[in-house]
Amino acid sequence: MNIKTRTCPSCRRRKPVAEFPGGAGGLPVHPLCRPCVEAGVRRRLASRARTRRQSKKACAQCAQLLPLAMFHWIPASRSHHSYCRPCHSAYMAARYRRVKADKAS
């Protein structure tokens, strides 16, 4: 009986291919085993929950630590924008001028 096995790079254990997601319908087999994939999902969800509980955030543009009220809310991603409102406004104004100049030429 020849069982195909592979090594999960996360836990470094040799497991049967059946313990890896995918493989159905010609899809490639995922590189991580199911427990490692599930652990990664749980870590990401916990990290997002911690981020949501924070009351301040650092702007990616000006690097100031500001209250969350200074950041736009993005409903689709259920998170706040990475630029604060003044930096986002300045970015969008520059973008508007750049696009307008490109259309004029």
The average pLDDT value, as a whole number, equals 88
- How many alpha or pi helices? 2
Count of individual domains: 2
How many DSSP E strands?
Answer: 6
Assembly of the depicted chains = single chain
In N-to-C order, the SSE pattern is EEHEEEEH
Largest sheet: 2 strands, antiparallel
Going across the major beta sheet, what is the strand order? 1-2
Percentage of residues assigned to helices:
25-40%
What is the percentage of strand-forming residues?
Answer: 15-25%
C-alpha Rg (nearest Å): 22 Å
Give the key terms.
2 helices; 105 residues; 21% strand; two-stranded antiparallel sheet; alpha+beta; two-stranded antiparallel ribbon; 6 strands; 2 domains
How would you describe this protein?
With 105 residues, the protein is an alpha+beta fold. It folds into 2 domains: 53 residues, no CATH class; 51 residues, no CATH class. Helix content is 38%, strand content 21%. The strands form 3 sheets. The protein has a two-stranded antiparallel sheet. It has a two-stranded antiparallel sheet with strand order 3-4. The mean pLDDT is 88.
Q: What's this, in brief?
A:
By secondary structure, this protein is α+β, with helices and mostly antiparallel strands. The chain has two helices and six strands; from the N terminus they run E-E-H-E-E-E-E-H. Helices cover 38% and strands 21% of the residues.
